[in-house]
């Protein structure tokens, strides 16, 4: 199949189409340029229609649902397969190609942007929950049916959660970090309980109907799920070390670079499968869904708070910040990343969306590879505006359900812990619900109410993930503009500083733009744009 690289592009294709005479050709050119986005939009709409058509009273059997969801599951598997090589190779190559001072400045600005926008999102969440009062007067018996404790994280101290975060930053085994993370869990201390010793009150099992006290002790465990934070940190530090090695390290840098480029080619192939996969992911969820009307009547206000909050932050606040700082059209930027946003909606996973996001910000929004491949993996791991927002709504909602009126200090505690715990949330479906327990523990609210949040998380998590990845993309877009401005002032883009030997070698070999090892003479985004216009054989 032959397709233009700019097929997912919102503007570049239009430019090339403009050269062709005739209105019909222009329209055709425009359609071709936006083909992937149009296919994705159609995929989402067709998924909703297909799901509603296949849905039947009494529901499909588990085997039927599994079969029906198969094409969607395939997309998820393909995206997950790419995450590990993509994150590690892009960060090693990115960190190795930048001067540590530049790296620090770039990372510093990105972290500041991520922190401020997450705090803003948390404030919107708290504000929405106080305005709409989703839990007020809700001693509603209809909520009781969602009281299933399956999937609710066990109780643990706030300090344990933060220590686990730090432990995960330093994985003890890199191979296990590729599929397992560290977590502290509390288990019954059988030895002490047998002696009949008196309990420690805070670890009393809440579900216990009797007053019998049980002694609990913290136990460190390896749990399922990639420790992406540890891998991100290792890859950055390893990249810096490679750079320090000088000429000796260059072969390895080239290796990671080539690995990265090859992975991105795989991504461009997977991209064409995304519309079909998203269609079946959406349809599969609609088929599986229980009674939505009932869910909305009991928890509608909570859902509304989260969705409206996500819409405000994603459609007004983030675009507003981007516009104020760059004077560029933020909605055009959003159009350029429509396919990854739809993928985030379909998969509920920032990590799975990362490969497509990298491809689209580079090709459609002119973000240089140096920036996107360094900032986006970090953003997908630590920046979760959507998660922080919904966690704040959930915390205030649960307080209202329990008739706890929150004071100023508790509100500030919610804002700070939500911002911090969103860093620890994994970019996987329901990753934010697991860290919600930290906030509830911090303001002494019962964690068992998380079961209510879980009941509607399949929906809230989708808009939450869209917002999570949108924040990362805007961060990369802002850094791109910052680096262009800096280059305009100094006539030298220090972000693009590279090793001279590698440059010479790649120039001699006629390697294309794209490698962080290769010095670019023009503005980075123009170089990136050029690559969008090239034809590629799929
Ligand atoms: N699903 C979200 C993500 O992948 C995490 C969350 O549950 O908040 O970004």
From TrEMBL:
One of its GO terms (cellular component) is plasma membrane. GO terms for molecular function: antiporter activity; L-aspartate transmembrane transporter activity; metal ion binding; neutral L-amino acid transmembrane transporter activity; symporter activity. Keywords: Acetylation, Amino-acid transport, Antiport, Cell membrane, Glycoprotein, Membrane, Metal-binding, Phosphoprotein, Sodium, Symport, Transmembrane, Transmembrane helix, Transport. The keyword Zinc-finger does not apply. Pfam families: SDF. It comes from the Eukaryota. It catalyses: iodide(out) = iodide(in); L-glutamine(in) + L-serine(out) + Na(+)(out) = L-glutamine(out) + L-serine(in) + Na(+)(in); L-glutamine(in) + L-glutamate(out) + Na(+)(out) + H(+)(out) = L-glutamine(out) + L-glutamate(in) + Na(+)(in) + H(+)(in); thiocyanate(in) = thiocyanate(out). The chain crosses the membrane at residues 33-54, 74-98, 110-132, 225-242, 263-287, 299-325, 332-354, 374-399, 411-440. Residues 527-538 have a biased composition (Basic and acidic residues). It is found in: Cell membrane; Melanosome; Membrane. PROSITE patterns: NA_DICARBOXYL_SYMP_1 (PS00713), NA_DICARBOXYL_SYMP_2 (PS00714). GO terms for biological process: L-aspartate import across plasma membrane. PANTHER family: NEUTRAL AMINO ACID TRANSPORTER B(0) (PTHR11958:SF19), SODIUM/DICARBOXYLATE SYMPORTER-RELATED (PTHR11958). This is Amino acid transporter. It comes from Pantherophis guttatus (Corn snake). The gene is SLC1A5.
């Amino acid at each position: 199949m032959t397709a233009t690289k700019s097929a997912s592009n919102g503007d570049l294709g239009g430019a090339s189409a403009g050269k062709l005479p005739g209105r019909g050709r222009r329209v055709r050119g425009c359609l071709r340029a936006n083909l992937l986005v149009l296919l994705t939009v159609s995929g989402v709409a067709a998924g909703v229609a297909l799901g509603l058509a296949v849905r039947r009273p009494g529901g499909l059997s588990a085997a039927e649902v599994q079969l029906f969801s198969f094409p969607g599951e395939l997309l998820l598997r393909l995206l997950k397969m790419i995450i590990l090589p993509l994150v590690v190779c892009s960060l090693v190559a990115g960190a190795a190609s930048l001067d540590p001072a530049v790296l620090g400045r770039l990372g510093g600005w990105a972290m500041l942007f991520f922190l401020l926008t997450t705090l803003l999102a948390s404030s919107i969440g708290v504000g929405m929950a106080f305005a709409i009062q989703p839990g007020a007067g809700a001693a509603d018996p209809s909520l009781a049916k969602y009281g299933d404790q399956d999937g609710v994280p066990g109780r643990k101290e706030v300090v344990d959660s933060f220590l686990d975060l730090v432990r995960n930053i330093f994985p003890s085994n890199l191979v296990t970090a590729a599929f397992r993370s560290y977590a502290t869990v509390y288990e019954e201390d059988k030895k002490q309980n047998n002696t009949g010793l008196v309990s420690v009150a805070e670890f009393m099992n809440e579900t216990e109907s009797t007053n019998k006290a049980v002694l609990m002790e913290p136990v460190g465990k390896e749990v399922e799920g990639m420790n992406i934070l540890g891998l991100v940190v290792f890859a950055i530090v390893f990249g810096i070390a490679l750079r320090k090695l000088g000429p000796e390290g260059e072969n390895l840098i080239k290796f990671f670079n080539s690995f990265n480029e090859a992975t991105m080619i795989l991504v461009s192939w997977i991209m064409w499968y995304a519309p079909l996969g998203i269609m079946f992911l959406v349809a599969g969820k609609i088929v599986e869904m229980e009674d939505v009307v009932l869910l909305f009547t009991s928890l509608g206000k909570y859902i509304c708070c989260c969705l409206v909050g996500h819409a405000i932050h994603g459609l007004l606040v983030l675009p507003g910040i981007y516009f104020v700082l760059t004077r560029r059209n933020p909605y055009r930027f959003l159009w350029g990343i429509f396919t990854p946003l739809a993928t985030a909606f379909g998969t509920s996973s920032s990590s799975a969306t990362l490969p497509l996001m990298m491809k689209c910000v580079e090709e459609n929004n002119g973000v240089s590879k140096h920036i996107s491949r360094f900032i986006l993996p970090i953003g997908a791991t630590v920046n979760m505006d959507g998660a922080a927002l919904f966690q704040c709504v959930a915390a205030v909602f649960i307080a209202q359900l329990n008739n706890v009126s929150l004071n100023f200090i508790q509100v500030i505690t919610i804002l700070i812990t939500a911002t911090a715990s969103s860093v620890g949330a994994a970019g996987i479906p329901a990753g934010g619900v697991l860290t919600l327990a930290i906030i509830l523990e911090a303001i002494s609210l019962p964690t068992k109410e998380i079961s209510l949040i879980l009941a509607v998380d399949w929906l809230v998590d989708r808009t939450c993930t869209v917002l999570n990845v949108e924040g990362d993309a805007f961060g990369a877009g802002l850094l791109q503009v910052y680096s262009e401005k800096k280059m305009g002032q100094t006539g030298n883009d220090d972000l693009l500083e590279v090793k001279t030997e590698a440059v010479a070698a790649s120039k001699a070999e006629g390697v294309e733009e794209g490698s962080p090892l290769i010095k670019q003479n023009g503005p980075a985004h123009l170089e990136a744009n050029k690559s969008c216009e090239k034809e590629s054989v799929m």
